[in-house]
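DATA SHEET
Item: assembly model
Revision: 1
Owner: S.N.
Input lines:
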Amino acid sequence: MSDHGATRAEVCAVALAECFRGDGEILASCFGTVPAIGARLARLSFAPDLLMTDGIASLVADVLPVSGEHAADEPIVEGWLPFRGVFDLLWSGRRHVIMIASQIDRFGNHNFACIGPHARPKAQLLGMRGAPGNTVHHPTSYWVPNHSPKVFVERVDVVSGVGYDRAAAAGPSAQRFHEIRRVVSNLGVFDFATPDRRMRLASLHPGVTKQDVCAATGFELVIPADVPPTRWPSAEELRLIREVLDPAGARQREVPA
Amino acid sequence: MDKRTTAAAVVAELRDGMTLGIGGWGSRRKPMALVREILRSPVRDLTLVSYGGPDVGLLCAAGKVRKLVYGFVSLDSIALDPQFRRARESGAIEALEFDEGMFQLGLYAAAIRLPFLPTRAGLGSDVVALHPQLRTVRSPYEDGEELVAMPALPLDVAIVHMNRADARGNAQYLGPDLYFDDLFLGAAKRRFVSCEQVVETREFTQLGSLHTLRIHRGMVDGVVETPGGAHFTECPPDYGRDEAFQRAYAAAAKSDEAWADFHERFLACESEAAYQDALRAWRTDG
């Protein structure tokens, strides 16, 4: 498959970076290690205008690694973005977020709030956080490091991030800026480029079959006749991931080889 | 007017069933000394309004909370406050959960005396579906958009923690983010600031830029000087989060026995001074 053996985590990082292609000068926000590597990789290569924060209140001009001795270096600060500014910015639409999904359904409804009924959950997870607002204001993508029928479910227990059917039911104001761009898992890349906005298998990570994906998915995916492989990392991308962005290999803990 | 007061006097204003807003964000610059004073008081059945951190966890664990109105509850370096998790999973509290941004608009609406503010946030999500009391509103203009009418979140009392304040109630934050402390104060009938240090008014502009003076005395009814008063949350640049203590807090929540020990050692203290002593002893002896 490869003449420069990339790991699954590295394939995922590139697929996550690709989510930001063409986004221009907007804020790239991420949760999870591999999405953070992906966004930084995009910024260092094909999406140099992306804005990024230090996770506190500063916009940072340089790209720091997610692991290793320089991960905690002082960044070059290019702007101030306290939380009030974050809300203004996300409501303006100039942002693309990658959130982790604990559950996601065929229309991209997302849950990381809780498992079981909201009134008295079996398991309290993160809560709604900003997912309801994010999803109706600016592009949203999702990251699933452990693709399984427990995550890709027939029906999410609670809708934190709004999917296509729920946005349509809520009306034009919910749909106006709504875009679930992509779902990247450890098995493949998925989008909603179907007439009824059902989730479609867009590409398979090298070494993964359609059967693997279907067996790990709790609903019926749209599977095109020809599914391309997920883009293989270039030699330069692998160098950036391994030597610059994640020298200590934090990505391997999120997506085992 | 000299507004300096004590934590005990602030908490004496709380009545059972009141709505209390707590400033800060997650495990960041929380008015923890005032929260600890509430733990020592008999007050109960509070409606808490917070971008929650350990303030929420501690008050839930002490049975002080009837209803929680929140954007989230997190310890930042630990994703979820374990006492909040327990309170939710046991059904001990009523939960009114908003999207983080909606929550801000609710405080802002209360602060500027509007019944609601319109927003797209919440549309299509279970924030709206789970709370039938939430209404939508239609734009009277040509766009005709139908938006969520985020209701005002008025507060009986608000407490926030700042780096510096003067005796008259002007207050200064020296860290990177005010969060929404001005809105909490603006939304409340009675408004209290705890601070690391009370300084002379003339010192403010030497300590920080004009932009750090977002809380003025017209917004504040009382000032409590309480060094270390945000512990174990962060209060930069005075101190960072006490991660070791936060881990101990989270670990203690895992069993009733461990929690009883934690409570005995740190929460049953008769005063904030006794708490700070217990903390020093813990740092020395473990």
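QC remark: The longest helix of chain B spans residues 272-285.
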